[in-house]
Design brief:
Blueprint (H helix, E strand, L loop, with lengths): L7 E6 L9 H12 E2 L4 E7 L6 H6 L2 E7 L9 E5 L2 H6 L6 H15 L6 E7 L13 H4 L2 H15 L4 E2 L13 H6 L13 H6 L1
Length: 203
C-alpha cells in the first residue's frame, strides 16, 4: 500500500479461525475479489494485527471498517456506525484481542492528530465465536453482500466509484479462500473443535 496516496482505507478485521470472528476479513476479501476499486482506495485484510495497522489508518483520509461486533442484537443484525461513535462501538463488548487492539489504533491515531476525517464501521452481530476452525454461520454469511453494498454506497457518496469485475479474482491463499476453507474442514468426529477430551481425561 502506498500510504501517501491512500484517500480511503477499507479494512476488514477479525480472525478467520474462529467462526463469525472472520466476518470482517471475509467482507474485504469478497469486495476485492468482485470489485475494481479506484487507485486511491485500498482494501486491506487487517486480521488481528492491532497496532501494526496504525500507520495505514493514519495515512487514510477516510476509513471503512468491517467487523463482527457484539451489539446484543439477534445474530446477523447489521449496524452502521459513523464518526465519533465508532470508537465507542469498537469497545462496546470485547469479543477478542483484535478489538482491544483496534480500539487502541483509533485512540493512537486521534492522539497523533492523524485520525481519518470520516469513519464508518459496518458491523454484524455474530452467532458463534467459540468454534476453532469453523466458518461463518449461515445467518452471518448471508450478510456479506449487504455489508459490501453498504460500503460501496458510502464510497460512491464520497466520490469513489468501484466497478464490478467480470471474473472474480482470488485474493488470498487458496487454502484460506472461503469455499476451500469450508469444504476442507474435518468433521467433529475427526477433529475435536473445543479441546481433545481424550487427552484431557488422560491428563
Amino acid at each position: 500500500m502506498d500510504e501517501a496516496r491512500c484517500e480511503v482505507l477499507v479494512l476488514g478485521i477479525g480472525n478467520l479461525l474462529w467462526a463469525d470472528e472472520g466476518f470482517g476479513v471475509r467482507c474485504v476479501e469478497k469486495l476485492a475479489a468482485e470489485w475494481v476499486l479506484p487507485e486511491t482506495v485500498t482494501a486491506m485484510d487487517g486480521g488481528t494485527q492491532g497496532l501494526y495497522l496504525l500507520p495505514y489508518v493514519q495515512a487514510a483520509r477516510r476509513l471503512v471498517v468491517f467487523d463482527a461486533i457484539d451489539y446484543g442484537l439477534p445474530p446477523g443484525t447489521m449496524k452502521r456506525v459513523e464518526g465519533d461513535e465508532v470508537p465507542r462501538f469498537m469497545g462496546v463488548k470485547k469479543m477478542s484481542l483484535h478489538q482491544t487492539g483496534f480500539q487502541e489504533v483509533i485512540s493512537a491515531a486521534a492522539l497523533t492528530g492523524k485520525l481519518p476525517e470520516e469513519l464508518l464501521l459496518i458491523g454484524v452481530q455474530p452467532e458463534e465465536l467459540d468454534d476453532y476452525g469453523g466458518s461463518l454461520r449461515p445467518v452471518v454469511k448471508a450478510r456479506l453482500g449487504d455489508a459490501i453494498d453498504m460500503a460501496l454506497e458510502q464510497l460512491r457518496q464520497w466520490g469513489y466509484a468501484a466497478q464490478p469485475r467480470h471474473v472474480p479474482e482470488m485474493q488470498c491463499d487458496s487454502a484460506l479462500a472461503l469455499a476451500a476453507y469450508e469444504s476442507g474442514r474435518p468433521s467433529v468426529e475427526a477433529a475435536c473443535r473445543y479441546g481433545d477430551d481424550r487427552y484431557l481425561h488422560a491428563a
